[in-house]
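Give me the 3D structure for DUF4235 domain-containing protein.
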Amino acid sequence: MNLILKLLGTGVSVGAGLASAKILDFIWTKATGNEPPKDKDGALDVSLRSAVIFALVSGAVSQVIRVLTNRGTQKAIARYNRTPEVV
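Predicted structure for DUF4235 domain-containing protein (87 residues):
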């Protein structure tokens, strides 16, 4: 059962990462009025400052999501291990 919980935790982490990327892109577009600075066909029309700020924010968000999903998975495994087997 621990394997199933770990796989579920991985799935939740991936889903949360994809959702947060979409939300971050939306917020960036609304806040700056520009598309997020991503490598699209090697375009150099984005300022370095904008690209670095976006990279820092997206990196911080992804790390927070990783930590939260790992903690949630560990709590779920601990809770499962504490409960008695139901036959």
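The longest helix spans residues 48-82. Let me know if you want a second pass.
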